[in-house]
Amino acid sequence: MNNFKVKTLKELGRLAKKFKSQNKKIVLAHGAFDFIHWGHIHYLKEAKKYGDVLMVSVVNDKFINKSEVKKRPLVFKQKTRTSWLAELQTVDYVILSNAPGPQKVMKAILPDFYVRGSDSKKRLKNKNSGLWQDKLEIEKLGGKLVFIKSLPIHSTDLLK
């Protein structure tokens, strides 16, 4: 297990500060990552291309069913989802988010890029959406929201 990749918010903040001092670009990905599939792998590989360090924020179990996009029950618990991501070579660090969205993580690590799948882009039309709030936060912190072309694969479809 690569649990050395799983960090607390404080640890991730310290690492980010170190990487920033070395002029390394930090990329933040965020999601539930339940039932990891090729679409997730593609998303993370593409995200990594935007910088030197890929940090992944995983949605805490307690926020999953409150998500504006979750349409099914959680299959795997947060410890499993976090551990799987830590095993991926593409992922440098993983954090379990203790908030519904990635904004606390953004403030701690000041990412250069916040990446999302293109299938979430339509949520920007709703100024009350979590993604809209994420966009405002990343821009306030000097970073950029980037959309990666989503593959037409979803966990819900795989479970049918």
From TrEMBL:
InterPro entries: Archaeal_FAD_synthase (IPR050385), Cyt_trans-like (IPR004821), Rossmann-like_a/b/a_fold (IPR014729). One of its GO terms (molecular function) is nucleotidyltransferase activity. Residues 29-144 form the Cytidyltransferase-like domain. Keywords: Nucleotidyltransferase, Transferase. The keyword Nucleotidyltransferase applies. The keyword DNA repair does not apply. This is Cytidyltransferase-like domain-containing protein. It comes from Candidatus Yanofskybacteria bacterium RIFCSPHIGHO2_02_FULL_38_22b.
